[in-house]
Backbone:
């Protein structure tokens, strides 16, 4: 069973005068860690929101964890973890309280919540800050709380939108280890624009540009797409710029 | 817990505080002892520990575990975590309206301020409960299985549980009839949610506040007469509005499981 199966997915954003942020995208993803790469405005966030079931697709079919994502969303959402790009939180909550509240919103059995919260905070290395207020945390710690709330219900499908923003290098390394660990049991999709994150942690790369799938394959395959003449400091970066610039030539950035 | 009880030798080393026990074995013994009374009994009897335990165990049975956490969770099962300051502000506005009314201040044709603010108060609370402008965790909440009409109703009920008693006290103090404010208040509450399923709760709140100010408050002040909407004859109109809003709300309830109701 594929955790994500999208066929010819179109997602229109911004009302009637809007644009198709996702434009005829077909994608199948199973267990493992998948990196979602693409330039700004490529439709990464819209795609992740659609997969998180908060944005309805305009056309096309989408099934998540073997269930069509159209009718009853509750069963799928219970098995889903989501970290939005803009992770908003309640400043006055303690770290433990915030993750507990999210666990409640995810309809976890109340008896299991304290233990699950403890474990999630342990995995992101925040056990010692559990009783601190959210407002006392640094940017990187807030991000880690975001990751903790996403994994608290042990999701089978984990969607992380720019999770490494604000993490220092040591935290990024720890994050990659955690993600590799999670990817053994679940389908993890990480949107990022940091190519080195993908090279280090992902088993699979999904490259989107202008709402469409440009490339899907292993990081090694992406590296072979680039030649020495392409822009970039590593083979994967060169492969990235080869595939993106072939699609949208002429863009200054 | 486990069927493997530690050996006598290991227990003796443990109770004598032997430093050479490997860490994993030490942990295993410790966690086993926590749950296995027979093995605790196998430890060399320690009179002080026994006495302390005998005194403590009946107390432990009676002490509720983390009662505050449970009460807290029950509270936020109803009240949106973002709504607290807004609910406090609503009570302040009611108090201010009563105070002004008591000093003889009224607008237009002796219309109490309490009557003029009653419908807009819950609108503020509802906007604070659902929507991206006032709830920082709006996107997280929208993606959870609990998102949807039941959660919206719970949060709205919590707002009304503050607004309605506040207004009851206010109307008793100022002598304003219940029927004159209760129906507009409920109609505006449900109306905000119904309009919210179409254009987003925040926008709906703004639209209704502006509509109330322009259509009711301004004429009341400008022409010094009580608007028909505030009079006793308006009740059927308010009931119709309430009913229509409920129909729209139920028909469009799935909007609350998506981002569209958060605009």
Residues:
């Amino acid at each position: 069973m594929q955790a994500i199966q999208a066929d010819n997915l179109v997602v229109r954003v911004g009302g009637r005068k809007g644009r198709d942020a996702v434009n005829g995208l077909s994608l199948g993803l199973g267990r493992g860690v998948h990196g979602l790469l693409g330039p700004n405005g490529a439709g990464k966030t819209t795609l992740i929101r659609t997969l998180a079931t908060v944005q309805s697709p305009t056309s096309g079919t989408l099934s998540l964890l073997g269930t069509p994502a159209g009718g009853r969303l509750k069963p799928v959402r219970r098995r889903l973890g989501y970290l939005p790009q803009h992770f908003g939180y309640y400043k006055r909550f303690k770290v433990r309280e915030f993750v507990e509240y999210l666990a409640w919103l995810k309809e976890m059995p109340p008896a299991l919540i304290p233990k699950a919260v403890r474990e999630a905070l342990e995995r992101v290395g925040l056990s010692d800050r559990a009783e601190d207020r959210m407002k006392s945390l640094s940017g990187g710690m807030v991000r880690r709380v975001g990751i903790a709330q996403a994994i608290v219900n042990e999701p089978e499908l984990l969607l992380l939108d720019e999770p490494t923003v604000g993490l220092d290098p040591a935290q990024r390394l720890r994050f990659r280890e955690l993600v590799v660990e999670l990817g053994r049991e679940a389908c993890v999709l990480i949107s990022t624009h940091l190519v080195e994150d993908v090279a280090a942690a992902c088993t699979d790369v999904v490259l989107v540009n202008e709402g469409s799938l440009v490339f899907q394959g292993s990081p090694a395959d992406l590296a072979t797409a680039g030649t020495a003449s392409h822009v970039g400091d590593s083979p994967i970066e060169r492969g990235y710029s080869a595939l993106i610039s072939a699609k949208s030539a002429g863009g200054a950035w | 817990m486990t069927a493997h009880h530690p050996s006598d030798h290991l227990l003796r080393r443990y109770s004598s505080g032997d430093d050479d026990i490997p860490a994993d074995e030490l942990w295993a013994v410790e966690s086993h002892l926590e749950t296995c009374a027979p093995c605790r009994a196998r430890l060399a009897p320690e009179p002080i520990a026994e006495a302390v335990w005998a005194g403590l165990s009946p107390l432990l049975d009676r002490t509720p575990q983390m009662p505050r956490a449970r009460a807290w969770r029950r509270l936020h099962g109803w009240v949106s975590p973002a709504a607290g300051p807004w609910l406090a502000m609503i009570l302040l506005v009611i108090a201010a309206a009563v105070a002004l009314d008591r000093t003889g201040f009224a607008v237009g044709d002796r219309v109490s301020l309490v009557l003029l603010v009653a419908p807009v108060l819950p609108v503020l609370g509802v906007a604070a409960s659902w929507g991206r402008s006032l709830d920082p965790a709006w996107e997280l909440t929208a993606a959870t299985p609990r998102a949807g009409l039941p959660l919206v109703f719970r949060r709205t009920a919590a707002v009304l549980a503050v607004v309605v008693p506040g207004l009851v006290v206010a109307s008793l103090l100022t002598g304003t009839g219940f029927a004159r404010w209760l129906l507009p208040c409920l109609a505006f509450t449900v109306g905000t949610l119904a309009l919210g399923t179409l254009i987003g709760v925040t926008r709906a709140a703004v639209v209704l506040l502006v509509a109330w100010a322009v259509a009711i408050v301004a004429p009341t002040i400008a022409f010094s007469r009580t608007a028909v909407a505030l009079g006793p004859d308006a009740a059927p109109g308010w009931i119709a509005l309430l009913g229509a809003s409920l129909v729209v709300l139920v028909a469009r309830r799935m909007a609350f499981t998506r981002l569209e109701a958060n605009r």
